[in-house]
Specification:
Blueprint (H helix, E strand, L loop, with lengths): L2 H9 L13 E3 L16 E11 L9 H9 L6 H8 L4 E5 L11 E6 L14 H11 L15 E2 L5 E10 L9 E2 L2 E3 L14 E2 L2 E9 L3 E2 L2 H11 L43 H6 L6 E2 L4 E6 L9 E4 L6 E8 L6 H5 L9 E8 H5 L21 E3 L28 E2 L9 E2 L8 E2 L4 E5 L6 E7 L20 E3 L2 H5 L8 E4 L3 E2 L2 H4 L24 E3 L4 E3 L2 E3 L7 E2 L2 E4 L2 E3 L2 E8 L8 E3 L2 E5 L2 E3 L2 E8 L1 E3 L2 E5 L2 E3 L2 E2 L2 E6 L4 E4 L2 E5 L2 E3 L2 E2 L3 E5 L12 E5 L2 E5 L5 E4 L2 E2 L3 E5 L10 E5 L2 E4 L5 E4 L2 E2 L3 E2 L3 E3 L2 E4 L3 E8 L11 E2 L2 E5 L6 E7 L8 E5 L9 E4 L19 E3 L6 E3 L1
Parallel strand pairs: 2-3, 2-4, 2-6, 5-9, 6-7, 6-10, 12-14, 23-24, 24-26, 25-27, 26-31, 27-32, 28-32, 29-33, 30-34, 31-35, 32-36, 33-37, 34-38, 35-39, 36-40, 36-41, 37-42, 38-43, 39-44, 40-45, 41-46, 42-47, 43-48, 44-49, 45-50, 46-51, 47-52, 48-53, 49-54, 50-55, 51-56, 52-57, 53-58, 54-59, ...
Antiparallel strand pairs: 1-4, 8-10, 10-11, 13-22, 14-15, 15-16, 16-17, 18-21, 19-20, 21-22, 65-66
């Protein structure tokens, strides 16, 4: 076994000893079945013992024969058949020799004279049952016979122990009790007295038998995934939930749960990814180090090959290419009913062995997994259709990520994601260009596809400080004039190489950016910017943009954006837009973003428009991460609707993660008498988003906070104006009915007020909104008609079951978490929890909060905050 594989095995070991439980053990009665399987010779045979466990209170529902076939058969869907296919015949799991009932079929069935442990997620408490089960199975198994090297220890290359407990699988949301969470305990038995026949067992895998009564037994994907750990492979999903990790393209990530049609989850798990195949010795890669055209043979053929393209001098980072055909067990990628289909094509992975090497250090930590940092994963799929796998775990996991003609064919310095290499030991996603470019030739499903691989590019353009506008060599911006030149290149890439500062003289008559007193013109106020802009941690100070009274409806540093802006600070910026051509949108970074990515940006100063956001006025299909607003944000609504948010004014199908607002957010309903009379209008302000809705997809706000004041105001000119709805929420002002959205792991500590509905977290919570693990310490969320609630001002009566683990500061003026349940009677039990100020400064108050990986209780405020 390779040193790296040994490293992976040992750093994933569970090293905590558990006290053993002394119980009586009883073997079950005899059964008889068909002859054992006779497999073909293998290069990597995996001897496996399956132990089925009954308890006093619950017994196995399926027969021994069923589980023998589920693990070992080559004639029906099984773990063995899966590995035989995905490793191209190099790995099979063979039944261990034993004398229980049908000798040598690899299955022993025991009964423990105790009740099921019902451990749920507590995998540690299962090891006692496993030790007892091994003791009960010992009369039928000569464990010492498997100790091939005679060292007195059974390693996983000598024997795999798979334990199936009667009961349910806790990792599935449909499971009932009693249950356990499927897991691989790698090395955890080493510290315990588990020495059948004088040899020490070290490792086992365990799972519950059933997903649920309706769904039936656990799919083969669960056992196959856990046995993958025994082969030395780590989890390749993001164990923190901050991203989707490797997604569904690997058994060791979310692909373990794939299925087809109405089949049970895990019935058609995805193949192993090429990095995993290399690690276990199932394939050797073809290495390409100079310009070349290579043939990629389909994963459904015996000629399947993996191409490796090194991208760093030390070889620690490289791309792996494969031609993924969604057939065989990979049909789950195409047909999975939960995540949507994916077409066949060339899959390209970025492997970073440095991450694996430091996996057991404080930088990553073994409890977080090699793909736990979405900014620098160990094994990352380079999606052809944008970095969707970097979005949080509960984001939609569908997508067509592979390369083929008629979809996307180019992966290079100019694409997004790009062919850059991570820099040194930085973990913040910083990359340097490599110049590598890969062009794919072939249609989806072709069993032979071509990859044209080229290396390197050097050129510098005039007018900028350097670069050629490619992703590998972005235009360098060192002056305000060069910043203004960005508008000439809608698809280019830029990097800020110095701080920029605008002064009053720049905007006065004769100044370089006077623009008839309107200041700096938004980049792409008309048209769309589709490139990337890297602030590189630099700042732009004193920017002044005034699109008021113009035909431009989008105002910000960028008017309209469909690309990427990251790591940019706007300091004391002034952005305003009151368009003569429709609803105006303004944000410090952009007026409108469509399917873009904003990360690591901050804004201070002021932003004003019909739809106003500190970062973005209107976002659709966009990911916003790690942004901060310190600007005063105001919607001066002249038309039907007005939205203001600390991060986004109006967010549609958008994910907002790890963002914070410290500025005041307000909506002022300035509609003049007689303007659009008779129409119902919405005016909403939120600390993060004024309005949040899914538009048929999910919209999420997670790990965000607001400390600024949130308010809406209105003026009445006629009776029709009372049809307007004015709402404020500490995080979100308004959510739309029937549109999926979620607010999770957020808090508000600023005052909230509104004429119609005010809530510490959400002003109006529609029926499709999920709120979980949130709290507000806003004192007395106020509304003149007394519609103020500690969590929500108004909530739909069908919404109660979607509010969990939400806490608020109880005061005489705010005794309820939800002030008014719309369209019905309030629920029998209020889903929110009132607390005193003292209680809210204690961890015990926040039942359901994750204080290991998400929340921290520290700091001057005394209240918890997301990490």
């Amino acid at each position: 076994m390779s040193t790296r594989l040994e490293h992976l095995r040992h750093v994933t070991a569970l090293l905590v000893a558990l006290a053993l439980m002394t119980v009586g053990l009883l073997a079950v009665p005899a059964r008889s079945y068909a002859d054992p399987i006779q497999p073909a010779p293998l290069s990597h045979p995996q001897t496996t013992l399956v132990v089925l466990v009954d308890f006093n209170d619950i017994q196995m529902q399926k027969t021994d024969e069923f589980w023998r076939d589920r693990v070992f058969s080559l004639d029906v869907d099984s773990v063995n058949r899966y590995y035989n296919e995905t490793t191209y015949g190099t790995h099979q799991f063979l039944p261990a020799a034993e004398t229980y009932e049908v000798a040598n079929d690899g299955v022993v069935h025991v009964t423990l004279a105790r009740n099921h442990p019902d451990a749920g997620r507590d995998t540690w408490s299962v090891s006692g049952c496993v030790i007892d089960a091994v003791t009960a199975a010992d009369p039928y198994v000569d464990f010492a016979a498997f100790d091939a090297n005679g060292d007195g220890v059974l390693d996983t290359d000598e024997l795999h122990l798979a334990v199936v407990l009667a009961g349910y699988e806790a990792s599935d949301s449909r499971a009932t009790r009693p249950s356990i969470w499927a897991h691989a305990n790698l090395g955890g038995l080493s510290w315990q007295d588990c020495r059948p026949d004088g040899v020490q067992l070290t490792t086992y895998i365990a799972q519950g038998e059933l997903i649920s009564q309706e769904a039936g037994p656990n799919g083969i994907g669960t056992v196959a995934h856990e046995l993958g750990h025994c082969l030395g492979l780590p989890d390749l999903y993001d164990t923190t939930g901050a991203s989707i990790g490797l997604g569904t393209s690997s058994l060791m990530a979310n692909g373990a749960g794939l299925s087809c049609g109405a089949a049970m989850d895990g019935s058609s798990p995805a193949h192993l990814d090429p990095w995993s195949l290399i690690q276990i010795g199932a394939r050797e890669p073809q290495v390409v180090t100079e310009d070349a055209t290579v043939i990629l043979h389909g994963s459904n053929t015996p000629d399947y090959n993996i191409v490796k393209v090194p991208i760093t001098d030390d070889g620690s980072q490289y791309f792996l290419l494969e031609n993924r055909i969604t057939e065989g067990y990979d049909r789950g990628l195409r047909d999975d009913r939960h995540r949507g289909g994916a077409a066949s094509g060339v899959a390209i992975y970025h492997v970073d062995e440095w991450v694996i090497d430091v996996w057991d250090t404080a930088i990553y930590g073994t409890n977080r997994g090699v793909n736990s940092n979405y900014l620098r994963k160990a094994v990352d799929l380079e999606e052809s259709d944008g970095p969707a796998l970097d979005l949080p775990w509960d984001s939609p996991q569908g997508g067509d990520h592979y390369f083929y003609e008629g979809h996307h064919t180019v992966f290079g310095p100019e694409t997004y994601p790009d062919t850059g290499a991570y820099v040194d030991t930085l973990t913040n996603g910083t990359t340097r260009p490599t110049g590598i470019r890969i062009v794919i030739e072939g249609e989806s499903g072709d069993e032979q596809m071509k990859a044209h691989i080229t290396f390197g590019s050097t050129a510098t353009a005039e007018g900028f400080a350097g670069g050629d506008g490619s992703y590998a060599r972005p235009y360098q911006i060192a002056t305000k004039t060069q910043l203004d030149m960005v508008r000439r290149h809608s698809d280019a890439h830029f990097v800020l190489v110095d701080d920029l500062e605008f002064t009053g003289a720049d905007f006065e008559a004769g100044g370089a950016f006077c623009n008839r007193g309107k200041g700096f013109r938004p980049l792409f106020g008309s048209g769309t910017f589709r490139g990337s802009f890297d602030g590189a941690g630099h700042s732009i100070t004193g920017l002044r943009i005034d699109a008021s009274g113009t035909a431009d409806i989008y105002a910000g540093l960028f008017g309209t954006l469909q690309g990427t802006v990251k790591d940019l600070d706007l300091v004391e910026a002034t952005v305003a837009a009151t368009s003569t051509n429709g609803v105006s949108h303004a944000g410090g970074i952009a007026g409108r973003v469509q399917e873009g990515l904003l990360s690591g940006c901050s804004v201070s100063g002021s932003v004003t428009a019909d739809w106003a956001g500190g970062i973005v006025g209107h976002a659709r299909g966009t990911a916003i991460r790690g942004c901060r607003n310190r600007a005063a944000v105001e919607s001066q609504a002249l038309y039907v609707h007005g939205y203001a948010g600390g991060i986004v004014g109006e967010a549609t199908r958008t994910t907002i993660w790890d963002c914070g607002n410290e500025g005041d957010v307000a909506v002022r309903c300035l509609r003049e008498e007689g303007v659009r009379a008779g129409q119902t209008s919405r005016f909403s302000a939120g600390g993060i988003a004024g309005q949040l809705w899914g538009a048929g997809f999910a919209a999420n706000i997670q790990r965000c906070f607001s400390t600024g004041g949130i308010s809406t105001e209105k003026w009445e000119y006629d009776d029709d104006y009372w049809g307007s709805l004015c709402m404020s929420g500490g995080i979100v002002g308004w959510t739309r009915a029937g549109e999926p959205a979620a607010v999770m792991d957020c808090y508000n500590a600023g005052p909230v007020s509104a004429p119609t509905a005010a809530g510490g977290i959400v002003g109006y919570a529609a029926d499709a909104l999920t709120m979980s693990r949130c709290y507000s310490v806003a004192e007395d969320p106020t509304a003149p008609n007394d519609s103020g609630g500690g969590i929500a001002g108004i909530a739909h009566d069908g919404h109660a079951d979607k509010i969990t683990a939400c806490f608020f500061l109880e005061t005489p003026a705010c005794p309820n978490g939800v002030h008014w349940w719309q369209s019905g009677e309030p629920p029998a039990q209020d889903p929110t929890t009132p607390c005193t100020d003292e209680e809210m400064q204690a961890q015990e108050c926040y039942e359901g909060f994750d204080f290991d990986d998400v929340w921290v209780l520290a700091g001057a405020s005394g209240y918890p905050y997301p990490q």
